[in-house]
Amino acid sequence: MSTMGAAASSASASSPPRTATFTLDGVGKVYPGVVAVSDVTLSGYPGEVLAICGANGAGKSTLAKLLAGQERPSSGRVIVDGYDGEITTPSAALDAGVLLMHQEPVIVDTFSIQENVWLTGLSSAGRRKPWQLVGGRERAERTRAALGVVGMRDADLGMPAGRLGPGPRQMVALSRSQVNEHRILLLDETTASTTEEHFKDVEALVRKEREAGATVVFVSHRMPEVFALADRIAVMRNGSLVDVVETADTTPDEIMTLMIGEAVMALEPPEPVSPDAAPTLLDVRGVSSGSACDISFSVREGEIVGIYGLVGSGRSSLARSISGHQRRETGTVRVRGREVHPHSPRAALREKIAYLSEDRRREGFVKDFDNAGNLTLSTLGSFSTGGVLNVRRERRRVARLTDEFQIKGGAERLTSSLSGGNQQKVCIAKVLESEPDVVVLDEPTKGIDVGARLNIYQIVRGLIERRKAVVVVTSEAEEALTLCNRVIVLRDGVIAGEFVSKTSTTDDLTRTALGGEIQ
Amino acid sequence: MTQDTAARTADAPPKAPGETTGGLALRRFGQWSKEQYPLYILIALLIFAGLTSDAFFSSYNLSNLLLQVSVIGIVTLAQFLIVLTGGIDISVGAVAGLAGVLSAGLFGGGNTLLAVAVAIALGAAIGAFNGYLIAYRGLEAFIVTLGMLALGRGLVYAYTEGQPVSPHAADFRTIATTAIAGVPVLGVIWIALAVAVAFLVRRTVFGRRVYALGSSKEAAYASGVPVKGTMITVYVIAGVLVGFAGFLLAARIGAATPTGGDNYEIDSIAAVVIGGASLVGGRGRVLGAVLGTLIFGVISNLLVLLNVSTFLQDAFRGALIIFAMVLTTVQFTRRRRHRTAPTAQIAHS
Question: Which CDD domains match (chain A) (predicted)?
Fold first, then answer.
């Protein structure tokens, strides 16, 4: 992370004297009952990286959608230099040269990687006619070149994109910027589903864009990334543009303060748990599964152990095999000294092991359920007699949970309609409702903004007092050190090192994860 | 302190802080009434029926109507359960037909109770078989039940050799011919089963699991829902309902005909969908399925009263299915536009 900070100072030297590539002129967007964006005036210039920061619900994504024509402004105008008329539809935005990259990459699972790179060529806005042929050798070369820009030169072009992990998926989507003409590249939380190691590819891409004279708009709430990339930072809060500042003249703390309107209280790493203070609750011996190979560690009562590593280091395989989501090839897992062999999530819950999935949308919550339904899904048995639900008892419990975890919208709001932070609170509350001894949290703050992130941290830290054994799988070194008593670093499926958070730095972790190479 | 901030900066206000419970109830009613398309269609149909035909609201016609819709109504309940899981069962008609001929023909058709048991056991067995292939072997519900449709109907013709099967038991028809206070028993059975299914899906752990796995299978599995077990149970329950409906059909007609249950798959799927259930699974109410059944029943009945030719009746029904589908998509997009607009634009991005 420190290296990213260094890159920021060199990047922000240029000043913008030219004509604006795009102008938002007093733009506002009102949904029924909600003012998402009000009266924003903002311009972007050629060869500039403009970051839009804000907490969830601050309106930053809506602003991006307005610029990309995905939403029609309720007031004001969106103008792109060299395009007659306003931007009110996606095809107008494409014609004007605005390319939007979504937070959830737009990937057709059954198409090959190459077909996905060229996906926008299928849209009616492209110049291709339906009867034109697709493919050809020249195309493979161009695909490879485009993928090379995002660090995927060696990808198998014919492989179905559905087999890619979340990071590479996003990278394939990003490579489309190399095959589509555009003047404005909009990255809407594009790095939310990727991990730290993909960031350098995004960085390279953004640099290339800037050199080519494009305007890059980078919507994010990750401060290190914003400071590594942006020339200027526009801060949104509650739908309004609070301030636009030159990156060189500000600090991450200042931006965070602008974003949430008050200073962020940082968490101190927890004290290490001394060996005799508490009994061992979870004991993992020689577990192999997927890319994880022969892993042994143990977690004490009231202890949080971090599992940190790069993609493919086996961190998720390990977590999923402990909690019955993935088959274990070898090894034993003991909870309170008793050997357990959960073959399904259900069996794991019975053994008091609960797992919070990394993939919130797919495995975290049921999309058509309200918060009440999702909160009690794992513990329906405790609200029922002879299979019949005791609705009143369920309602009472849900009211207590929404209150305790400060879940937005209460019991009746659809979980899928909540912000990422609130969705995650629902998922965590559900996981804890099963009263597990062992809690495995896979990327607990993935895609969650600063304000809510601290919230989640406090909930996780609260588990120390509840005497749980907690395993936190994370791809962010800083998060590992903030949350955990100890951090185990995985590399290529094996344990490469173990650190006490109190006395370690993010540098220690990343170096170990990379195998001592200099970054 | 920080938690307050998070709450303040998150998206939409759920409800006004000072709202009274009365206001909330009113708001809920407003919300509810907005989604009652099937009820409005039915009311409009009834008004139209009353205006165009004097005979429609006669007690004879109404009890006849109830007799007609009860059997398909029970099949629709079965279809509803399966559609909730995200599946579909196109073998319901063939299975009902097979259950009908076997219940009338096996063991000489001399004992009505035995006939009921045969029908239900057959339905349960076929449901378990379908459910096993779909839940445990991961096959597509559509393909499995397509096969079962052909298999079942083939067996019906093989068993009957194309002739109706007449049961010997004197009381075979009783259930379909008696009425309580002018209401046919068949109708009472249908409504009682509808209430039972509604209770099952809304008030039991099992029902909650059905909705969960229909909506998000992976999330349900990860939350500890026994997905496969729940799924096969749904197919068995549906099979029992269909088998029983097959017996009732034979009882109503007085004999099991080889064509009994024809087109039930179309009618039941159409009724479930017009009742507001999502074919993708996870959404739908029993009330909707009941209203859907009534809508199609009223239309068929009315077409007969208005002397429309039988062939045209089928065409009308088909047209209505398409119309209903279009209607549900209109409703669907209106409700979800804000949430899914960005993904709807996938092709353009």
Answer: ABC_Carb_Monos_II (cd03215)
Residues of chain A below pLDDT 50 = 1-14, 16, 124-126, 263-264, 517-519
pLDDT tens, position by position, B316-328: 878 877 887 777 6
Residue environment code for A228-238, b if the CB has 16+ CB neighbours within 10 A, otherwise e: bbbbbbbbbbb
Secondary structure (DSSP) of B200-240: HHHHBHHHHHHHHHHH-HHHHHHTT--HHHHHHHHHHHHHH
The percent of residues in chain B predicted with pLDDT above 90, rounded, is 49
Q: How many CA atoms lie within 13 A of A320 on its CB side?
A: 18
Alpha helical stretches, state H, A407-449: 420-433
Alpha-carbon A42 to chain mean position: 26
Q: Do B9 and A451 touch (CB under 8 A)?
A: yes
Stretch B48-56: mean pLDDT, rounded?
A: 88
Predicted ipTM of the assembly: 0.80
Indicate the burial class of A468 (C-beta count within 10 angstroms; 0-12, 13-18, 19 or more): buried
- How many other β-carbons are positioned within 10 Å of the β-carbon of residue B206? 20
Q: What local confidence, expressed as pLDDT, does residue A195 receive?
A: 66
Question: B211: which chain A residues are within 8 Å (Cβ-Cβ)?
Answer: 366, 368-369, 373
Tokens representing B334?
Answer: 């209106």
Cβ–Cβ < 8 Å for B89, B265: yes
Query: CA-to-CA distance for B36 and B46, rounded, in angstroms?
Result: 16
Helix, strand, coil distribution of chain B in percent, nearest 5: 75, 0, 25
* Alpha carbons A403 and A397: distance in angstroms, whole number: 10
User: Phi, psi (5° rounding) for residue B219?
Assistant: -65, -40
Q: Cα-flanking dihedrals φ and ψ of residue B182, to 5°?
A: 85, -10
How far apart (Å, rounded) are the C-alpha atoms in residues B64 and B167?
23
Structural domains in chain A, sorted by start: 2-11+18-260 (3.40.50.300), 265-352+436-519 (3.40.50.300), 365-433 (no CATH)
pLDDT of B18 over the 50 cut: no
- The pLDDT-based confidence of B14 (bands split at 50, 70, 90) is very low
Contact criterion met (CB < 8 Å) for A451 and B220: no
What are the CA-CA distances from residue A487 to residues A441, A507, B56, B182, B319 (Å)? 14, 13, 77, 76, 64
Nearest to A260 among B5, B282, B343 (CB): B5
Q: Give the tens place of pLDDT for each residue, B72-102.
A: 999 999 999 999 999 999 999 999 999 999 9
d(CA B280, nearest CA chain A) in Å: 11
- The string of pLDDT tens digits covering residues B127-138 is 999 999 999 999
